[in-house]
Design brief:
- By secondary structure, the protein is of the alpha+beta class.
- Helices cover 19% and strands 36% of the residues.
- A hairpin with a 6-residue loop joins β7 and β8.
Amino acid sequence: MHTPEIEQATAFTAVIGTTPVVIVLPRMRAALIAESGALVTADAWIAALTEHGAQPMRDTDFVGDPAPGWTVTIGRGLTAVRITGPAGLGEIYDGGLEADTAWRERVAGLHHIGAGLVVISGTADSTTPDAALEMMETERAVWIRAATELG
């Protein structure tokens, strides 16, 4: 499945339980239509992410090691991030990242032990923090644990 191109996305940081996460919301939703005209999926973004290892967010345990091929590269000062998936998916976000000191310290600690960073994405009504929270509460989110690289 081809990953839909997204011109822009918004990223937020949060701590869920004790787990630091980055939430990526694309600014649009794309349906995937077969040549026959049949609907393949109403949300090509989520379909592409799950095809490359993301799991439906049904709880907040986030158990597991970083998924193969997934990387979150965090720039110096933890103010920019680049998130890439495995071959066939590629880059899903490259841009600014606002995070408080506690989030940064947790991410650095997880990086030090090779635990990676949880990336959450999905379909939201807008690209606001409230819409991201609603997306997660209504089980329209997926997650993956990615390896981290610090720039």
